[in-house]
Amino acid sequence: MIKRTHYSSELEGGEEDVTVAGWVHEIRDLGGVAFYVIRDRDGRLQVTLPRKSVDEKLSERFSGVGREDVVAVTGRVKEDDRAPGGFEVVPESLEIVSEAASPLPLDPTGKVGSEMDTRLDNRVMDLRRAEISSIFRVRHEALRLTREFLCSEGFVEVDTPKIVATATEGGTELFPITYFDREAFLNQSPQLYKQMLMAGGLDRVFEVGPIFRAEEHNTRRHLNESTSIDVEAAHHDAGDVMSTLEELILFVESGLTESAAGELEALDRDLEPPEPPLPRVTYGEAVEIAAGEGVDVEWGDDLSTAAERAVGERVGGYYFVTEWPADIKPFYVQSDGDVCHSFDLMRGGLELASGARRVSDVDLLLERIDAQGLDPEGFDFYVDAFRYGVPPHSGWGLGLERLLMSITGAENIRETVLFPRDRRRLSP
Length: 428
Ligand code: ATP
Ligand code: MG
Fold this sequence. Notes:
29% of the residues lie in helices and 28% in strands. By secondary structure, it is an alpha+beta fold. The protein folds into 2 domains: 91 residues, CATH 2.40.50.140; 292 residues, BirA Bifunctional Protein, domain 2 (2-Layer Sandwich), CATH 3.30.930. Strand 2 and strand 3 form a beta hairpin. The two termini are 30 Å apart. It binds adenosine-5'-triphosphate (ATP) and magnesium ion (MG). Magnesium ion binds next to strand 16.
């Protein structure tokens, strides 16, 4: 195997001998001279074949090269302003490493557009486009920055089970599985387990992991398998963990403007990292704003998509919705009369995160489980964890893909996952 010595981004002038490798992105044959644009991880470079001055056999071998073949080319680097990247390679040898079948299922140059379904059916080819792979480099950087920030704030990264016996919220959005001779489920949230760790003394934890929800409907913001960034902190109230969340958003967005500048440019995104404190809109205010836009919400009902959009337009950018009616939030949320210590982080009507101060009193917890019509037996392991001393605690769950929609401007959540799982899609 011929070893690559340089990526496209590493070429420098000075008539050096290099070996470059990648996919043949484009071929332009002008007769006397032919240009082969090669694409690699970092971008593109031009191989220039001046037919008269190169070996005839080499010239012939180049005629056998097709679009999207993988090739390795050894040659001399020359500066040339007209070439992409500012350099061209004049070949001395060529190896066709792997040939691409034709026709191609989609056009990796992006000149011919493709439908979302065609793209996802051929995701590997789709990823060859710079704007598409940029999303996954931004995703990688966003996760790296998230870990850097939470670690610097004293959070410990943990992993909790994804095969569970009980529904987190008693909801119907669960995928049942067969666990030997019993029924089990794929976890819809690490909620119960991260809270139990508060009684275990880890004090501040975070988890980045998959959540599974049997959402029945196809929407542009729901997946059946997604990634949640979860945080739980002892001796923190809702306001404290809201600060952690807004500081995290600021840290990630500002970090990205430096470490993912090229990717953001490829995506045509100009981030304006939001300075804390973010606006806080109470649920009651949200209902009023929505009513002012002709969208009616009865106090006590969840905010509809139309209501959330109306509030998002009025407030602009990132904001929190706070002071929710207790009855529409899960049993583990601490309330104060009719209102509870719960919040959603929103942007432009899209929910990015939900969080709250939790109930840590065992009697109250049992009462709330009963009041929501849940089977208390299924929650024994969770409630028992709170019987021997548990600090007050709060936390949130932030959807990584929703955050990426906000950062990259993707209109459809499927853009932010390599191989999305939705109502119809289970392969690739
Ligand atoms: P929504 O109302 O948008 O369906 P939710 O309130 O049911 O979301 P939570 O249980 O609050 O979701 O989960 C915390 C976060 O996890 C959400 O704010 C969202 O960012 C993300 N999330 C939840 N469900 C999904 C899903 N099916 N696909 C993608 N992200 C999700
Ligand atoms: Mg929510």
